[in-house]
Amino acid sequence: MTAEMFPKEKTIDLRKKHIGPSCKVFFSHDPIKIVRAKGQYMYDENGVRYLDCINNVAHVGHSHPMVVKAGAEQMELLNTNSRFLHDNLVQYAQRLQATLPEKLSVCYFVNSGSEANDLALRLAWEYTGHKDVITLDNAYHGHVSSLINISPYKFHQLANAEQSKSVHVALSPDLYRGNYRQDHPDPATAYADDVNNLIQKAHEKGHKVAAFIAESLQSCGGQVIPPAGYFQKVAQHVHRAGGLFIADEVQVGFGRVGTHFWAFQLQGEDFVPDIVTMGKPIGNGHPMSCVVTTREVAEAFKNSGMEYFNTFGGNPVSCAIGLAVLDVIEKEDLQGNALRVGGYLTRLLEQQKEKHPLVGDVRGRGLFVGAELVRDRVKLTPATAEAQDIIYKLKEQHILLSADGPHRNVLKFKPPMCFSEEDADMVVEKIDQILTDIEKALGLQMPSTVHTENGSRKRNICGHRRFNLRKTDVIIQME
Amino acid sequence: MTAEMFPKEKTIDLRKKHIGPSCKVFFSHDPIKIVRAKGQYMYDENGVRYLDCINNVAHVGHSHPMVVKAGAEQMELLNTNSRFLHDNLVQYAQRLQATLPEKLSVCYFVNSGSEANDLALRLAWEYTGHKDVITLDNAYHGHVSSLINISPYKFHQLANAEQSKSVHVALSPDLYRGNYRQDHPDPATAYADDVNNLIQKAHEKGHKVAAFIAESLQSCGGQVIPPAGYFQKVAQHVHRAGGLFIADEVQVGFGRVGTHFWAFQLQGEDFVPDIVTMGKPIGNGHPMSCVVTTREVAEAFKNSGMEYFNTFGGNPVSCAIGLAVLDVIEKEDLQGNALRVGGYLTRLLEQQKEKHPLVGDVRGRGLFVGAELVRDRVKLTPATAEAQDIIYKLKEQHILLSADGPHRNVLKFKPPMCFSEEDADMVVEKIDQILTDIEKALGLQMPSTVHTENGSRKRNICGHRRFNLRKTDVIIQME
């Protein structure tokens, strides 16, 4: 066990004294002190082990020895800026490019997802000469001022929120709670048309659209998975208006979705964004990130006449760490693990949906999974307090999970990619127990089931009216 | 010697292919490939040693073993976000605070000087409820979009520069080339009055000023040292308008100025900024930075209702590295070294000024030193080409120096803090030779000298008319 510098109370006191009070801790009434971590496990000052289901930054597992070794060895040798030639920089750019469609060939290395998204906006503004940005409702793109402006997840929190006139908020393509749902004949087109309407309205005001930006899968927004084909249709509208498509992969890239290395690839091979931004998992916790774009956009940015220099971006240590992360993903087949274990976890959660009325929706791709809790499956009343209760009770049982989304009622799974089926079993078993207790206290019951003609079970209450509309959907949802 | 991954030509080719063309290399016609570094020396792929006179990021010396060890050991143990309690975070905040005036007690940890300055603006906007920002001419505050807006050094580079209506550019308090010079009876008041005029003009337009931001010593702007008392007077004007004073220490903090730990302290003990931003040297190359402010500003920011979360900011590895940097500064008395060696270097350069007509001004504090080259000491015609020539010729002799400022004619010394008197001797000796050659080629000659009444030498030509106005200034400049 690692020696502490201060007893926990002293740590809390010093934090209150010296750390900005806007910087929140998890479980504020009884925060956790973590002193070491390995794989998908974190350990507190007393050696108590926590299962980490939320840390998508520790992508290949906490303190992975190959990543640590790469970082330490390069630190010992050289850590300087990218105005000098270095092989790590170009090798890493080459390796990243190999994971992407060919036309995404030019990299800019920066230090955080926020720096990446801000640079993506600068690229779009410069390339198009336009100013306006279309973003999705509930989106989160970062903490620097330009990104607060395009992050409804953040600016909705402000008492005196004033939305920038050059920012337009499109409907979140949420098939569970959004305007167009599972029962809609073509939600991809309907949601893309909403983007097009915003473009037309902007044009009517004499504005021009520089970019549409979206997380390839919305994370803070509630683990939202847009319908396939949506991005293609949006890109058509945005390109027609002279704008660019920015895919924000900060939370969901690097193999997490299991079937693909990048989450935007879930939309189909015919979709290629103009700019991709990366972040959190890229360095397994090391502060680094990247923007990748096309040669055309990069040349336009250069032609503005302004040099781009980022003091720390692309330094040899960051690149060595980035290379090691790619190596570990390959060597340990973590993308494959995300597919297998993510699928297993999703199936376990779907069983919970069959059993527990509070579980309204389960959705996921690989190790990016959400379970949305509702008090009523027709009205979709968010079960916010219940979600918080689960998170706190799990914490008492040494499992770290979070609830997010606009109503903070979506249990959000995005664990280190070495997460195992046993880990999935354990967390879902605990959730099962907690849900049983909560539902008992609330007097909530699952209605009796009937069997459908093909043998799958179907709920037979008004609370499930939506599901009865399209039988195939029901079956997919229930299995 | 370290094995290369690619031959240099291949590195260059890959860089052209995969790295944004706005990202420039030093010495673009024959860039340097650096494979390792130690202390104030960098080594290329052939083992050739370069003396580093420019790398203020490698503050305690390249690859300092204590810093490397601290980073490697903490990486092995834990690297996670600040939503968990950790002693490194609070200990580091406490240590930083101890270097600052007491009222600067609340820290926000971020990943780069750019993130720090953007957050400083957000704090000021939220605290004051005002929008406008006053910045200095030639200032550089970072690369994210909000900072390009307040960085004339950058936005002057744009072909289609359009200055934001909420940004006001004040005169740079440059005593050599600015509006009010050495011969002005009270340049501090005169430059501060210019800020006040901008405030009044903003008020006339119905605008309100949120902040005045300045590097404590302008670096990219040409190693400008504002007259003592200037910041106090500016702060009075800005506070009266309800705004905050942001001191940007990204380039100049952490003991570089020799006499003080922070460069704003050069203004006198009666001056305390409302916000201080840190960056480059803070982690000796590791991507990290910090914003420190008062309890009042921090509470106002919290009261906006918006959480501040920075994924990588304040992680245990960054804090371990930050702590090690502070330890090394203390243990090796690097602030004392900056004072001694910086003073020695400045004196050597002042001797060059006596000898070489091209050296128009030498100014410095500790290991932050500038030598401004001019073709004419009255007209102050910038010797831009000559400065570039010197930089290139030094590079051929394996010395890394840069030229900066609005005319790129200021030789800019900001070496690792372990720089020695022998290093200073070597670089100045080479500069002496190069200046001699250039001046010979140009037919430039130093006029004959006369002795002043107190025995110090004084130039006796019209080119020195300015210096004759105030005898004490002349003597200080010449010694």
TrEMBL record, chains A, B:
Principal subcellular localization: mitochondrion
Localisation per UniProt entry: Mitochondrion
GO CC annotations, alphabetized: mitochondrion
Cofactors named for this entry: pyridoxal 5'-phosphate
PROSITE patterns linked to this entry: AA_TRANSFER_CLASS_3 (PS00600)
SUPFAM superfamilies per record: PLP-dependent transferases
GO function terms (MF aspect): ethanolamine-phosphate phospho-lyase activity; pyridoxal phosphate binding; transaminase activity
Entry EC number(s): 4.2.3.2
Signal sequence coordinates: none
EC category: lyase
Catalysis: reaction(s): phosphoethanolamine + H2O = acetaldehyde + NH4(+) + phosphate
Keywords: Lyase, Mitochondrion, Pyridoxal phosphate
Membrane-spanning parts: none
Known role: Catalyzes the pyridoxal-phosphate-dependent breakdown of phosphoethanolamine, converting it to ammonia, inorganic phosphate and acetaldehyde.
Similarity comment: family membership: Belongs to the class-III pyridoxal-phosphate-dependent aminotransferase family.
Quaternary structure (record): Homotetramer.
Name the record gives this protein: Ethanolamine-phosphate phospho-lyase
Species whose genome carries this gene: Salvelinus namaycush (Lake trout)
